[in-house]
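haha ok so turns out i had the wrong file open the whole time. this is the CORRECT one, sorry everyone. sequence first:
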Amino acid sequence: MLNAALNSPLNTKDALTCLTKSENELEAKYRHSILDVAILQDHIALQRESVIKTQSDRIDLRRRMRDAEQKLQHERQDHRDVNCDLSRQYKTMQAELTSKVERLEKEVSKLKEELALCQEELRKERRQHEQLEKEKDSTVAVLQHKLDNMDADYEKILHDTLDSLTSQLSVARQGWEDKSTTLHQNYKELLSEFGLNALDI
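then structure:
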């Protein structure tokens, strides 16, 4: 049809105009199509970059999630280990404390028994001491009474002895005086026989 229009002399100008117009339209459509293709390619490139970035982000996020899960797993394990260790330490401390409390209770019970025995012994000692004090006071009183009696007896004996000695001394003095007078008289007589005066001697 296009060839028939070109072969007709009357329609050559119109045909050329139509052809030019068609070419322009085709060129415009072509350019528009190229532009659309370029835009679509740019859009696809952007979408691809976005997809690549999204995939990269997804991979990075998954990696980070795995790291976080591993870290969380390690922390949970550490937490379990710490809990187990603390539980073991607590049980050990509780056992030691229970043992210490039982030992202290036994020691307290033993000390209470010893204290009771000591208090009983102290009561016995006090009773014995009080008994000894009473016996001592009684003995001292008896001895004091005997001593007082002995003092009285000794004083009486002393007075009797002194009285006896005084009497004996008086008798002896009288005898000595009598003997002295007799001796003195005998000496005077003896001196007189020798012609001596006793007063001159």
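The CA atoms of residues 47 and 53 lie 9 Å apart.
again sry for the mixup
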